[in-house]
Amino acid sequence: MSSTPIRHTALDALHRSLGATMTDFAGWDMPLRYGSERDEHNAVRTRAGLFDLSHMGEITVSGPEASALLNHALVGNLASVGVGRARYTMICQEDGGILDDLIVYRLGDTEFMVVANASNAQVVLDALVERSAGFDAVVRDDRDAYALIAVQGPESPGILASLTDAGLDGLKYYAGLPGTVAGVPALIARTGYTGEDGFELFVKPEHAVELWQALTKAGEGVGLVPCGLSCRDTLRLEAGMPLYGHELSTSLTPFDAGLGRVVKFEKEGDFVGRGALEEAAARSRENPPRVLVGLVAEGRRVPRAGYAVVAGGEVIGEVTSGAPSPTLGKPIAMAYVDAAHAAPGTAGVGVDIRGSHEPYEVVALPFYKRQK
Amino acid sequence: MSNPQQLRYSKEHEWLSGAEDGVSTVGITEHAANALGDVVFVQLPEVGDTVAAGETCGELESTKSVSDLYSPVAGEVTEVNEDVVNDPSLVNSAPFEGGWLFKVRVAEEPGDLLSADEYTAFSAG
């Protein structure tokens, strides 16, 4: 048992007034859902949804050698990221194991914001501080400096445009710019974790309620609804996006997770984990380990994380995430399976659901891709 | 939320109707349905099965979790709600009505079923 008191976001009272079912998530009391998680999911796919993501961990890295420090500490080439752009990357251990997956925004030539998962924010902060030794750069814990509100879904550009003069048309996916939304200073980023177009707004916590209310009002006519973490999980699962603790862990390298492309060996200088990752890259070419695949149920029973994937009476893998997919109308899962069974359409694959082997189809990820 | 006065309730959050010709209807309460979230799959006992009070007789699967279904009484299953098998969301939308789960010819009732008021207090605590 942890003795750490549970943390509340700046929007806590608002969530309660909206009747949210709350849940403990990485030490934070967060909204799980407000009504039906399926309705929230569908709203994001077809209209818009509003999320409180203030539990995410922001870390600012600044100084003349900020980009050099990040190139050393992370597996990506952050020095090549343009000002105003964002990059999906990872921080690994010396042995190549994934400490966390991150989004890094380049706010200026010498300033970056690293966004870590809530459950790993302290680990990432500690690693960055440790790895900053010898670099002319400062690592600052900004977890309490920001609230994070996401508006996601096809109606989100229209909703946001009604509240800001910022040039959203010129704001590409994985880009961010400072601006004002509903009179509140915000870093406006075109990022998200739902598979839809959308924005993440980093603001001071004292402005969070005002911004949430303005977005709610602006979205009234187009069906925007508040959304909890439950639908966030089914949205990201349909979009084939990994979740730390499920698809990613310290016992896997990015190559084991099918995300070797985030590792940039060609960048200048050494980086933490390079040697182990070079070995992992070679191993994955020559002798592929288990492969992350999608599974779609033929029946209606739902696979859960940790359930065995089976074929011919043998265990050939393990489910990492599973849920009923509101968009497909069937249960889906991500799973690591032996390479021999990983090809889409492989026959005879099932999931052991509490003793019963339910048939599943192996498919390529993602399950859902939005039409652009 | 209000729990219908005419029903009785188990501490596993099932409700039981009064018996008609010895047959009672079983469902789960609104409190339980809300706690589960959107129910996406139900596995019910089969007609003719013998169920025991307080023992597992099926499964309720929601987006986030799977829960055992217990029978509040002992007896023989006389009917299952095919509508809810085909549309599990009835458990959420009408837990005390269209979302009923099965009917049972009651052989024996445990003595600890709760009244509506007792269950309301129990489920609030």
Describe the protein in words.
- The complex is a heterodimer of chains A (372) and B (125).
- Chain A has helices at 12-17, 37-46, 66-73, 121-131, 156-161, 208-218, 229-238, 274-286; strands spanning 7-8, 21-25, 28-33, 48-52, 57-62, 86-92, 98-108, 111-116, 138-141, 147-152, 176-181, 184-189, 198-203, 224-227, 291-297, 308-311, 314-325, 330-337, 349-353, 356-363.
- Chain A is an alpha+beta fold and 372 residues long.
- Among the domains of chain A are: 11-54 and 146-239, Probable tRNA modification gtpase trme, domain 1 (Gyrase A, domain 2), CATH 3.30.1360.120; 289-371, Elongation Factor Tu (Ef-tu), domain 3 (Beta Barrel), CATH 2.40.30.110.
- Chain A has a 6-stranded mixed β-sheet with strand order 11-12-13-10-4-14. In chain A, strands 15-18-17-16-19-20 form a 6-stranded antiparallel β-barrel.
- With 125 residues, chain B is α+β, with helices and mostly antiparallel strands.
- Helix content of chain B is 20%, strand content 35%.
- In chain B, strands 1-2-3-9-8-5 form a 6-stranded antiparallel β-sheet. In chain B, strands 4-6-7 form a 3-stranded antiparallel β-sheet.
- In chain B, a hairpin with a 6-residue loop joins strand 2 and strand 3.
- The two termini of chain B are 14 Å apart.
- The interface between A and B is medium-sized, with 16 and 12 residues.
Give the biggest beta sheet of chain A.
6 strands, mixed
| Helix amount of chain B | 10-25%
Q: Biggest interface in this structure?
A: A-B, 16 and 12 residues
Can you count the helices of chain B?
4
